[in-house]
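Retro notes
What went well: the complex prediction finally ran end to end.
Inputs used:
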Amino acid sequence: MELTKRIALHRVELPTLSWSWILLPLFVALLAFMLAYPVGLLFVKSFAINRPGQPTAWGLEGWIAAFSDRGLPLALANTFSLGAVRVAITSVLAVFFAWVVTRTDTPWKGLIEAMLWLGFFLPLLPMTLGWVLLLDPQYGLINKFLMKVFQLSAPPFDIYSYWGIVWCHLAFSTSVRFLLMTPAFKTMDAALEEAARISGSNNLGILCRITVPILAPALLVSTALGFIRSLESFEIELVLGIPARIYVISTKVYDFIHFEPPLYGRATALCSIFLVMIFLLIWLQKALLRGREYTTITGRSYAVRSFSLGPWRWVTFAFCMLFIFVMIVLPLATLVMGTFMEFFGNFDLEKPWTSRHWATAFTDPIFLRSFKNTLILGLGAGVLGTLLYALISYYIVRTRFACRGLIDVLSWLPWALPGVLISLALLWTALGSGNLIKLIYGTVFLLSLAIIIKEMPLGTQIIKAGVMQISKELEEASTASGASWPAGFRRIMLPLLRPTMMAVGIIVFISAVRDIPTVVFLSTHNSRTISLLMLDYIAEANMEKAAVLGVFIVFLIFVLLFIVRVLGLRRVVIQS
Amino acid sequence: MNNRYIRAALFLGTVGFLSLVWTNTPSAQTKATWQERWEKALAEAKKEGKVVVMAPPGDLIRDAMTQGFKKAYPDISMEYSGARGGELATRVKAERDAGIYSVDIVISGTSTANSYFKPMKALDPIEPAFILPEVMDLKYWRDSRLEFSDRSTRYTLVFATQNPPPLIFNPAQVKAEDVDELNELLDPKWKGKIAVQDPIPSGTGQGGFRWLWHVLGPEKAKDFYRKMHAQAGAIDRDQRRQIEWVAQGKYPLHLSPGTIMFQLSKRGLKFGVVSELKDYGSYLSAGFAGAMLVNKAPHPNAAKVFLNWLLTREGQTAWSNAMGYVSRRLDVPTDHIPSYWIPKPKVKYWPSYYEEDSTLTPEQEKFLKEIFGR
């Protein structure tokens, strides 16, 4: 018996050692090449001060010019102020919605969850135009209605304002944070909450004293990601901020990139502010989580039970539905209506209504090819990216190998850069790293790689929080039973991480199908995607036609999710 | 007798000379040459199979070029990549640095041509690629000449020029005669009521301000810039939004509207146009109509065929219909283009597309950033 056990242990250890020694250095090198090399290239080239076509000259002029911009202090203040306000509001809302959906008996939870997912899918720019149509101080429909009904002399709302920007961000930002938090809420064992309830705590007390502290990793990650994302966000700030003369760092970066010739060096220099913020947040996150245990999934079976809210469940239901109606359904309806108008919200035209945008968007000669490329890109980036993020997360959280701290920091790097700079860095990397790498230039694979890199911070951090919740004892049991590490990872970790990975996969898929800046330098004639087709329409100021494709993408994602759900249910039926 | 011989000899000599001259006239010689050159280029182009064109983004222009060329030359396919000038140039530069030569023709703004492609040494002289008499015969072109942005080196052919109106207005709020002189825009009654196209990035905003610098002179221009900045209700880069603002009455005036106004007016937006100022006139812009032949091209013969097609009446009509540009070819119809867009005969316009004028000077750039920087 003893001998058998020793042999078994011997069997377990040897493969583990060989896997580690062979694969891990390769893995670290691959990540360094994917992340550090392009960013390093961008950093080095930010010191090039020659005009295009001139011999290369180096200097600090770009950096000095970027940081001596007289509007920078105000832009910095606006950026941090807007970010902090949004994160504060969305933290409360997202925790509340995640709690309602996963831990309470609020009616129609499935619908609430689906609608909050929808909030994430909706295209940001057309949705903002939807809000402009509703809340523009001059022609906004809600303003006009309120002025008429209440005989007001001035419009009550102005979308082109600080609070207008915060408002337009709410649906998307809350949805993202809801998506990031929900898997953690779903996999949390109810035993602790039940113990608190037996000890006399009420629902609010349980939420504040048990649920939130236990889910601290997921909450912290979602807060950090939400904050970084809010620093980077620029579409809404561009549409609403510029007329109100509210500038943020991201709109300044956008200005540098869209200058002729584009000032990529200055844009990179300014992005170093994001990098500093990321380092601060990593440090803060580590300091807050150090020395504590956050496992909620152990070898024992765990129960996920809903708690009865009594009559309060109708209050939570009403609040959720109010949020969904005001923040998601209303602008979505406006957006869909807008796709049937010649111009969004312009009712004064001779013929304000048209179906032309729908008729012509799908008859574009390159639509089918773009659609096929988009599906390959989305599925490729979604599947490969999620697996890669899972491996990275596991490597950072579970192993004691060298460089894991470095990999953790590297995995955050892409969020220090706007998509267009990632695209540029990958263009230089793909074309300047030898003939073998050059082969991927012009393929959909390179586009997938760009998206995988772009979404790496989000994917890795959220799966990392998921891995932290899974107790080590499960893997130890697997190893003791003779399973190799890959088998244990495949049979134990991946199934337990499935809800989190599904969420991440869908987020990456969405990003892949609608991201324009991250693929703009990498797409060629043969690898065009629908998002670049949208760029064609935007170039001709046809936002309505671009919005048709945006709505189509949302529809496509819903169909995909439906198929996944049906297949999932069928599998459950077959298994039972 | 002698005289008869002399006359006969003179007659024969004259006939001989004339027949000699006749058979050596350029037209006869060129006719034979262009046909041979064209057939050879076409045959080689068919073997190459495709032409790669980098040009402005937009589905209308993409379809006009790809469908039009396919109809004319079904055996040669076209890969059309549309992007902004700076992005096109950045990608081409990275490709060439890596030894990839994928592009045959670039069609872009003249600032992109002169700031990027020419210094990059990525261009071949374009004129040797012209083969068809319809393209080469100067009688078809305005002022009987081909126009180049770089007049001394002649790499970038400007094939269309139009007059971007300096101002649009909401007819319900403004009378054209109240704003058709430059200084009228500085009237206190318009304070906060003008949306100004941001003059810092390249485009019509910058073009309009460069023109003012040229016609006013540096000191007066600086004074006008300062006053206009104080007068402006909004300074924006979103072309469509500003034109919509005027159409909806949010701002009654818009200085230096974007070229996108052509597409927007075609779709039904209503606004009044001041096509030139009474006191200073207006200027000419090439927009995206700068054609360049890229060197080391992968499909040099297909590039020649495309370029010749683009510059024929057929190609220019397709371009003009899609972009709303006024071709420099005189036989291209203009009935689809609004009258304010078409340069008027006998009016002297400042051409903004010449190499020396197509970008801001360091002095202009510094001053504009001081005033309009955000």
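What we learned: The CA atoms of residues 245 and 251 of chain B lie 6 Å apart.
What to try next: split runs per interface for comparison.
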